[in-house]
Design brief:
The protein has 301 residues and is α/β, with parallel strands linked by helices. Among the domains are: 83 residues, Orthogonal Bundle (Arc Repressor Mutant, subunit A); 102 residues, Periplasmic binding protein-like II (D-Maltodextrin-Binding Protein, domain 2). The protein has eleven helices and twelve strands. Helix 1 crosses helix 2 and helix 1 packs across helix 4. It is elongated and about 65 Å long.
Length: 301
Amino acid sequence: MTLQQLKYVITVAETGTITEAANKLYISQPSLTNAIHELEKEMNIVIFNRTNKGISLSREGNDFLGYARQVLEQAAILEDKYKRNHGGKKQFCVSTQHYSFAVNAFVDLVKEYGQDEYDFSLRETQTYEIIEDVVRMKSELGILFMNDFNEKVIGKLLKSHDLEFHLLFTAKPHVFISREHPLARQSVITNKELEQYPYLSFEQGEHNSFYFSEEIFSESERKKNIRVRDRATLFNLLIGLNGYTVCSGVIDEKLNGKDIIAVPLADEDDMHIGYITHRKGILSRLGDSYLKALQAYITEK
């Protein structure tokens, strides 16, 4: 077994196909396939299930992947220590719901560790995909929220996939609206007052149930609904249509502009915002640094 073989396995698991993995690794498909076969034979396990539709991680392959990542991480630490940071590209990936503090912390991480070579990924994506990314260990961390409404469903899903939720902070729900919105001067806004305005939320794809929504009280029926995929579009619609969305209240003017404000929302449950990790994973030095950056922004708020 070699570190190269472990890297091959992880890349195939992350990309989901031999073809894409081979392209990313700059080797031929037959060479990649043979290397994985040799590793499976040596370890006496089946890492990938192979069908006419493609490949997927087996149950024992998923366990093996967790250990493989730990081995590569420890190897990277050794290289950093004894090769004076010339151990190749630094790699890190985090998946998150649409939070400005998550982006700001990522910027700080890149400034600290992004030297000559690095390969970092920030995935602002759908809730189920965040969970899936951490399950597959494509992302080291996943950032999402839970409350009284979705906790049973999300918690059960995390437990079934060997994931853990770690609380970062508890937030009072706020309405995000334009600074020129008719309700912008109020100190608190009620659900009743919002009825006539378009409700904006992030589309959740195949898993577009209330429990996977990024916004609270999503079980409520609304007359005007608009779903979007990215933060910039949502904020443009907040301004252009006097729409609103509901989030933690943590907003950054440098990132989101000065035209959006946060106003407390009355009579709603708290949001427990945190990060998820895989039980079989070990937090890397980059993951640890990212969490420290997150805590710094949260403390500021």
